[in-house]
Amino acid sequence: MIGIIRAAAVFLAAGSGLVNGASLQSVTGWGSNPSNIQMSIYVPDRVAAKPPVVVVLHGCGGNGQQMYSSSRFQTYADQYGFVLIYPSSNSNQGMACWDVHSAKSLTHNGGGDTQGIVQQVQYALNKYNGDAARVYVMGFSSGAMMTNVLAATYPDVFEAGAPFAGVPAACWAGAGGSNPANSNTTCANGQITKSAQDWGNYARNAYSGYNGRRTRMQVWHGAADTLVLPQNFQETLKQWSNVLGVSLTSTNSNNPESGYTQYLYGDGKQLVGYLQAGAGHGGVPYHESMVLSFFGVLTTPATSTTVSRTPTTTPGATTTPMTTPRTTPAMTTTTPGNPGGSQSKWGQCGGLGWTGFTACSPPAACSTLNPYYAQCL
Known about the structure:
single chain; 19% helix; alpha/beta; 20% strand
């Protein structure tokens, strides 16, 4: 949430034999769009006969195009034929964060960001004959918080979710905002702790009266996160253990690799958590193959080769190709000089097209995590 747009290494599907002409497309006219968010979609050249749909959500200060560029979910979509949606939050929402605090977003069909994202899912299901029983969501930071909120407000839509560096659903309720500029940061600071039952009630109340399937969850966090403190990892696990009715069965060191601790609930098919020692905000790689395996989309490779890229099911809907370079910048932290002034902590200090201050007020330093965005941390 507290918005670094983290660049993960991007690998092309080398040696796969795929000739990929697919690209990220901007879509308009996909629904009533109650909170004025944007939609981008990635449809591989070879789409499964009834493809799953995966929603990928950016953090504060970012957008769907950046999330596309800094992850490698597309390479798996090319192989397995599922459809990817990359929403972008309303830029008027502070720092382009997702709304995870208002009653609109925290209520099923409440008219907030959550409803807009679900409308994008419905568009993709209709357009590409998608499998409504296989819709998934993952996100980083603010996108992780939205992942938890979507699991609470639309468990009938999302079969599984994977938040990276998030907070429990409704943790920001009543805060007055969902971004770092908000004066009430008790949620991100891990100062809101509740019982598993209370957290579960928050999630259930987001869709009052619903008694159907609940969203399975794979939760990730860095143990050295100083922006969204790791106490939120534990609170999130409490929430979903209560909602899903599973208990902690074991904690396993160095799983899935050295430095991680796995928190296994039940048999791990409904809820599992991973805490990485020494990792700060944005320091936990997306582990795309593990996320997608948990979702259940890495099955038979796609064989269908016919893809229509002209919307036909939503009146007025249009798609526009986006120029989206895939880059693999190194993560660096610098404090450049700028005699003209400096940014305060959390402010933007760099990125393509940025013309503002590039120095940060001490002790903050400018952290550049992808070509589009750097932030004073």
